[in-house]
From TrEMBL:
Keywords: Hydrolase, Serine esterase. Its EC number is 3.1.1.-. PANTHER family: PROTEIN PHOSPHATASE METHYLESTERASE 1 (PTHR14189:SF0), PROTEIN PHOSPHATASE METHYLESTERASE-1 RELATED (PTHR14189). It comes from Schizosaccharomyces octosporus (strain yFS286). Residues 69-312 form the AB hydrolase-1 domain. This is Protein phosphatase methylesterase 1. The active site is at S149, D174, H301. It comes from the Eukaryota.
């Protein structure tokens, strides 16, 4: 079924506005078709690197529109942004383009070595993937880079290093240097205490909702399946990404993020779940008007999954605000 099927898009949009209260051991109803990438994007792209393929999901922009490049965070996948795609399409009059990428060691990407998760390596992967798609489809539209958590650091690094031309906007979602560094010990405890496997996809979705890791039922049905792979004996589902093995890179991912974000030469938007997460540099920068700040207090860390309707509206308004000014020709 096509991502432009209006009945499916309408159903997804209605479900995204609902919340589903859960009882302690209740399993949620799960519709497998909701997690099909084809409901949200036009194409699945295999991007060769010489060491395996980066997987991306693409909807081409219309002329004079823009391409939103979407990069997920650690432990997530490119499908993390799928819940807001129907709203982004609707709010852009079906003109916007979207490229969502699986990081190495995540989703369906198979780039080796998966043990190299340094920020520079991940940024190189990201830049290579974007440039490959631009060349393949002869895209000259402006880019809006949107990154969640680690993805925010990657997008910021690419802009800070001036690796990609045509970037008109940088959006980072709940990626804050100070609070990220302070949460490292909590993250280690979280990873060590979460289930190592699930008996079914439904059980995994229920766990994400009951723990408030994701707060929207429909979003969890769309995004959680891509986080899991069958065990070798097919008796259960286990995590696709070994988050614990990435811990040596955590400091590298976030150290210096605030200053790089503030000095990036493009429009900037920071979206957070709580304003009290801002560190000193970001507080001063916000007071000086160096970036736009938006707060989504009803959301958790996965703001774009918890509030996809609000997120889509913010992104489209940000795009319009940062379009280049075209002056009329003098006669």
């Amino acid at each position: 079924m096509s991502f432009r099927d209006h009945s499916l898009r309408s159903l997804i949009q209605q479900n995204l506005k609902k919340t589903l209260p859960l009882q302690p051991e209740e399993k949620v109803p799960y519709e497998p078709s909701l997690s099909n990438w084809g409901n949200y994007f036009q194409e699945r792209i295999e991007i060769p690197t010489g060491h395996g393929d980066i997987i991306g999901y693409l909807t081409l922009p219309q002329p004079d529109s823009c391409l939103f490049v979407l990069q997920h965070g650690a432990g997530s996948s490119a499908m993390s942004f799928a819940p807001m795609i129907p709203e982004l399409l609707s709010n852009s009059d079906n003109s916007g383009g979207f490229l969502s990428l699986d990081l190495r060691a995540h989703g369906e990407t198979s780039v080796q070595p998966e043990t190299d998760m340094s920020l520079q390596t991940l940024t190189n992967d990201f830049v290579h993937a974007v440039q490959y798609v631009q060349n393949m489809f002869h895209l000259e539209e402006k880019l809006i880079l949107v990154g969640h958590s680690l993805g925010g650091s990657i997008c910021t690094e690419a802009v800070f290093q001036k690796r990609l031309p045509n970037v008109s906007g940088l959006v980072i979602i709940d990626a804050i240097e100070g609070s990220a560094i302070e949460s490292f010990n909590y993250m280690r405890r979280y990873i060590s205490t979460r289930p190592s496997s699930f008996s079914s996809i439904e059980e995994a979705i229920s766990w994400h909702l009951k723990t408030l890791t994701i707060r929207q039922h429909s979003s969890a049905c769309i995004t959680v399946p891509s986080l899991l792979i069958p065990s070798e004996d097919s008796s259960c589902y286990k995590w696709r990404t070994d988050l614990a093995s990435t811990s040596p890179f955590w400091s590298d991912w976030f150290t210096g993020l605030s200053d790089k974000f503030l000095t990036s030469a493009c429009g900037k938007l920071l979206i957070v779940a709580a304003a009290d997460r801002l560190d000193k540099s970001l507080i001063i920068g916000q007071m000086q008007g160096k970036y736009q700040l938006e707060v989504s207090p009803a959301s958790g860390h996965f703001v774009h999954e918890d509030a996809p309707v609000q997120m889509a509206s913010l992104l489209i308004k940000f795009w319009h605000r940062n379009q280049p000014l075209v002056l009329p020709l003098k006669v």
